Amino acid sequence: MSFELIHTSVPRGLRGDSGFATAVATRALPVGLESVLAELSAYDFDANRCVGVDRVDWAHRILTLRGKSFTVLSRVAPCGNDSSGRPNRIAHHLVLDADERASAGPAWMLDAFSGFSHTVPPIAEPSEGPQLPTGSLEPRRATAWESAGFDPGWAGIVARTVLEAPNSVCYVVLPNELNALPLAADVLALLPIERRWHVSFSTRFQRLPAAAKCQIRFVRNNATGLSKLLNEPGVRQVTVTASVAADASPAAEAARSGRFVESTLRAPPSTRVVPVLHATPQLNGHERVGVNPASAATPRAPSVSNAPTVLTNTGDSEHFLPLFDANERATKQAPPPRARAASTALSSVPPLALFLFAYSAVATAIAVLLFVFAAR
User: Fold this and answer.
1) Cα–Cα distance between 209 and 213 in angstroms, integer?
2) 113 phi-psi bin (left φ>0, alpha ψ -120 to 50, beta other)
3) In the chain, where does DSSP find H-type helix?
4) Were both Cys, which of 71, 90, 194, 208 would link to 96 (CB 3.0–4.6 Å)?
5) pTM score, two decimals?
6) Could you read off the pLDDT of 288-343 as tens digits, one per residue?
């Protein structure tokens, strides 16, 4: 079940407060969500201070509250003046269940949803959320970037960046203010379908509460305070210039031709130890043609191929490397020459002689003890 919340300046809100407050909220909204969504409803009217590239903040964010994740689609935009004459804004948030997320992705869904409020609505608490659009979207040429005056390949560069660094923030630096939602839709269309809802974004980025995640942040070049954001540790940056084409990488070419962008990262080599045993058939000697039964019963030495091996993953294939070679194995298993000679000498003495030798030794020891006792 989806939920919605509309936050704006009203004389008296749903909870009885005035000023910027909740005007509409679906009944049974999960505990804790309302306060976080209120924080996400902020709008900076100062164009010199705001770093976002769009006049409207179109956003897909992932919230984590009490160990549970929520998908939130938002539209925050100016909304005339409030009753006191001050600039007003309206924030409309949609909270989606997993089965309500269109495979086309969050940017497509933001554009397709026609129920966003552009004016202050009546105070209400509906029992259920709004009807949401559904649809699919195949990868396509990044025509929105082209229409904005940029090389379509830049969309592929952004897509590759978020695929290769899914836990890092990516700032997309654009030269001037524009409608960035179509640009976000082009980027997400290039991603594998199962990855689209893992990527969050904002077209007019502002500081976030701790519970919210926003990966792609569309910002305006030379905005006040932008350099500080770009210097934060771990962030990625894609600076787009209208007069400069993206590179000829596979990701850029995929955006130009309308194909899925794939990560160019390869998994690091694995050093797992995997025993590889080559078993030999266990056949009875009488069942072998032309084999003497006596010789067939003679046990065979274990094959060197039974040695454990190291599995090394090079990315393209797996190579099995013996831990030691046959000569080293033979050296470890063979006894030293002196031990072999002593063993051979003992095996040639008759058993009766060995018994008599042991008996005489014991008798001699007893006689010595008796003599010593008698002498005392």
Assistant:
1) 9
2) beta
3) 33-39, 106-112, 143-147, 153-164, 181-189, 226-230, 250-257, 293-296, 326-333, 337-347, 351-375
4) 71
5) 0.70
6) 444 444 444 444 444 444 433 333 333 333 333 333 344 444 444 555 555 555 55
